[in-house]
Write a structure and sequence with these properties.
442 residues, Nuclear Transport Factor 2, Chain: A, 2 domains, eight-stranded mixed β-sheet, five-stranded antiparallel β-sheet, 37% helix, DUF3887, hydrolase
Length: 442
């Protein structure tokens, strides 16, 4: 899923003042489009790496995607080692982001990030309504903790009432630093899936993705620059499955992994490394090289939302060049495309889900795809279908009227759809429950 990735800017100088004041001042200058004044605070390394024009392109590109900043919250300061960090919530017109400015012991800016905003502690809790197909009386929820060693992840286990030994589906996120509900705008697809499936006899585990739960650790450029799909996605899914096998009321022989987007692409690798899964469900799983996917997504966005596409390109002025080198296999690992180093994109390409599925003939597989999806398309579905051809333990289903999030609509989907509330379609819920075996086969 193509999402706004964290943007890292590194500097070696700063105003001489308190970190809270300096962070707010820098953001105020950017908000006022006074880029020359903001640029004047940069030290030699920052000035060389980020010209006034580039700073302008980055900030205005984000505003073209999300609208202007309408408000900023109070600065919140903490410490990580010798660094002092300031986080300020920036309310862009359509999406809030957290600006994180990090200062070294000398009071100089050492990092600047814009990341998905954490929940506002002062804001009243707003509960997303359940879909009409959900009956809260049919399930219970409890807090648990999962995750690979050293990466604890808060999670929610949703159990069907009246089932002594329930099958369990573990949800695995798409790309980006998601929460346990895989919240995107007003939508929470993992919450819909959990509540819908639990009402149909299937237990569901959903957890905070480590890049969301441990944002502070990913503020370290060394960690951010070395992340790959194995540690970002696969390791935590494996740890969750291993832990779940010891839970009372869960059938250890019927544990499934259901991945969305990148999570679906990773599901065959998770199954191979785990070796004990009862099956996997792939929701909108890509099977083509990442350079092709990103280029196709950008071209679609250019057609349906030119301003948003222009903003993406302005944020990454060399995107087309890097994608071409990625396609040719000549891109360097430390080059970046949409904020992620090429080595990360290579880790995605190394997943090769179609090849792995062909090498796992005894693994039950359910592949679901939305026909309106512009991020993962029927070209990907065809590759997966070919790998599963002739297998009695594999089911492939296309929903012509659903998008990447499996929400119903008309025509090819657009990025703006993520800003409209909706629910995962009930057909997806029923098809997964039926395939797991808790609903009668039609």
């Amino acid at each position: 899923m193509l999402r706004l990735l964290p943007i890292l800017l590194i500097s070696t100088t700063a105003w001489a003042g308190e970190p809270k004041d300096d962070a707010r001042r820098f953001l105020d200058l950017c908000k006022a489009l006074k880029f020359e004044e903001a640029h004047a605070a940069f030290g030699p390394k920052m000035a060389a790496a980020l010209s006034t024009e580039k700073l302008k392109a980055v900030w205005t590109g984000i505003e073209k995607q999300l609208g202007p900043v309408t408000a900023m919250g109070e600065p919140r300061e903490d410490r990580v080692g010798a660094s002092r960090r300031v986080r300020i919530r920036c309310e862009f017109k359509t999406t809030p982001l957290d600006a994180l400015v990090s200062f070294d012991p000398e009071g100089k800016i050492e990092g600047f990030f814009l990341t998905p905003a954490a929940a506002d502690p002062k804001a009243p809790a707003v509960k997303k309504p359940d879909p009409p197909y959900v009956d809260p009386a049919k399930y219970t929820e409890e807090d648990v903790v999962v995750g690979a060693e050293g990466w604890p992840l808060a999670a929610t286990l949703t159990r069907p009432k009246g089932v002594d030994k329930a099958p369990l589906v573990i949800l695995v996120h798409g790309s980006g630093p998601h929460d346990r509900d895989e919240t995107i705008g007003p939508n929470a697809p993992f919450r819909d899936l959990a509540h819908g499936l639990a009402g149909r006899g299937v237990a569901v585990l959903r957890y905070e993705k480590r890049t969301h739960a441990h944002k502070a650790r990913y503020a370290d450029p060394k960690i951010l620059g070395s992340v790959g799909v194995q540690d970002e996605v696969v390791d935590d899914a494996l740890a969750a499955a291993a832990k779940a096998r010891g839970w009372k009321g869960i059938d250890p022989a019927r544990i499934f992994v259901m991945g969305h987007s990148l999570g679906g692409t990773s599901a065959p690798l998770i199954a191979r490394q785990d070796g004990k899964l009862a099956g996997i469900v792939l929701l909108a799983a890509s099977a083509r090289p990442s350079a092709d996917l990103v280029r196709e997504q950008i071209e679609h966005i250019r057609k349906v939302d030119p301003e948003r596409a222009k903003g993406l390109v302005e944020i990454d002025t060399k995107l087309d060049e890097v994608l071409a080198r990625m396609k040719a296999g000549t891109a360097k690992d430390d080059e970046k495309a949409l904020g992620a180093p090429v080595r990360y994109w290579k880790s995605m390409d190394a997943l090769q889900p179609a090849k792995l599925l062909a090498e796992l003939p005894n693994l039950p597989v359910l592949v679901l795809q939305g026909g309106r999806d512009y991020q993962v398309t029927e070209a990907d579905l065809d590759l997966l279908r070919k790998a599963l051809n002739g297998r009695s333990n594999a089911t492939v289903r296309l929903y012509p009227d659903l998008n990447h999030g499996f929400l119903k609509g008309e025509g090819k989907a657009t990025p703006a759809e993520y800003e409209k509330p909706g629910f995962v379609d009930v057909r997806v819920i029923d098809d997964v429950a039926r395939w797991v075996g808790t609903l009668p086969v039609l």
